[in-house]
Amino acid sequence: MYKIIRLNIGIVLVISLLSANVFAQKHPDFTIQNQVKTGIVKSQDNTGTCWAYTTASFLEAEAIRKGKPVYDLSEMYVVRNVYTEKAELYVRLYGKANFSQGGQAHDFTNAVARYGLVPESVYPGLTNGKKSHNHEQLERFLKYILDDVAGKPSVGNDWRYMFAGLLDAHLGKMPQQFDYEGKNYTPQTFAEQAMAFNADEYVELTSYEHHPFYAQFDLEVPDNWSRDAYYNVPVNELIEVVDNALKNGFSVAWDGDVSEAGFRHQDSRADLTSEQTELVKSVGIQTARRQTFDDLSTADDHLMHLTGIATDKSGNIFYLTKNSWGKSNKSEGYLYMSSDFVNLKTIAIMVHKDAIPKTLAKKLGL
Predict the structure, then answer these.
(1) Residue 238 contacts by C-beta under 8 Å, 6 or more apart in sequence?
(2) Nearest of 77, 65, 142 to residue 114 by alpha carbon
(3) Is the pLDDT of residue 5 over 50?
């Protein structure tokens, strides 16, 4: 996403405070019913790369589920590769493509399939003594290079060398091979052997009635720059996928809207406003989803990692959610999103295919 760290109160800058815990800190207002193990809470700092942090966390949880160690993966290794892919498309389309910091969960898995993956210690994406990430100037300078050549005839390769040189200066040179815990890897062998990664295991789903259900479509959000297809299902079945995943040891990469009054990260919770609740009551959840998508009040704001199910003191369902804004809130980086909020404000999800109930998987041809 591009607006990841831009809420209605402005830009949120957070500091990465890392620890080795794999479970969320308890909150006095909630009781956790199911929780999936995952890696440490991290911060995307002043970048629009929540898609990378969320999907890295998702794959860390997948590795744990598969019996692998708790890894701390390099988000910036993947971000670096995706910047390059976006640049190639931007130039080929004469500058009429989206080039920004934002992205989707599939950008991460697609890049891992092509370029592999490395641990954070191998490629932190920080140079010249920097302690935190800030891609505002980097994005601006990269786009200067692209706009200088996009749509112009007889473009050579010089721009590619300049583009790569700027990325090297800001993020660091890419590793070709490395030693990690006594073994030598390339990024590809680390993904295959250490992570047991297989891109074909993961699918994305959404729920919008302006396209047929049980088919795929190109989700119309700016950060779907690669034009990947999502399976479209009714919202009740989308939530069934989320619940089935979390109750059976799988986690969920969540894409949705957070730039509104009901999303209160500092208070570690997200709820619908009274106006949103009335809209759902008046037109139904499926139509409310379409209306808020059409009028942009549900926008493609942010990706986070759903890692569990909880209840409040009244028995209402909430989803335990791992954010990428550091440990800056009451639950040390986690928050609780109400089921009503998730029903209305979910743009899309990524899950392992085995997390999808068999009846729905059959409908989708999976």
Answers:
(1) 205, 206, 207, 346, 349
(2) 77
(3) no
CA distance 246 to 355: 8
The per-residue pLDDT for range 213-244, each reduced to its tens digit, is 999 999 999 999 999 999 999 999 999 999 99
pLDDT band at 9 (very low <50, low <70, confident <90, very high): very low
Give this prediction's pTM. 0.93
Inter-residue contact 135 to 47 (CB < 8 Å): yes
Note whether 6 and 259 are within 8 A (CB).
yes
Q: What is the pLDDT of residue 155?
A: 81
Print the domain residue range for 38. 6-364
Number of compact structural domains in the chain: 1
Q: Which two tokens stand for residue 208?
A: 């919008």
How many whole angstroms separate alpha carbon 63 and alpha carbon 196? 7
Task: Give the H/E segment covering residue 253.
Answer: strand 252-256
Q: Which of 305, 299, 298, 359 is nearest to 334 (CA)?
A: 305
SS3 of residue 163 by DSSP? helix
Other Cβ atoms within 10 Å of 306 Cβ, number: 25
**Mean pLDDT computed over 119-135:** 97
Integer Cα distance of 11 and 24 in angstroms: 25
Element containing residue 160 per DSSP (H, E): helix 158-171
Residue 312 sits in a domain whose CATH number is 3.90.70.10
Distance CA 359, CA 336 (A): 29
Among 63, 71, 78, which Cα is nearest to 40's? 71
Closest CA to 203 of 225, 226, 227, 230: 230
Q: Is 1 a domain residue?
A: no
CB 136: neighbour CB atoms within 10 A? 12
Rounded mean pLDDT of 331-354?
97
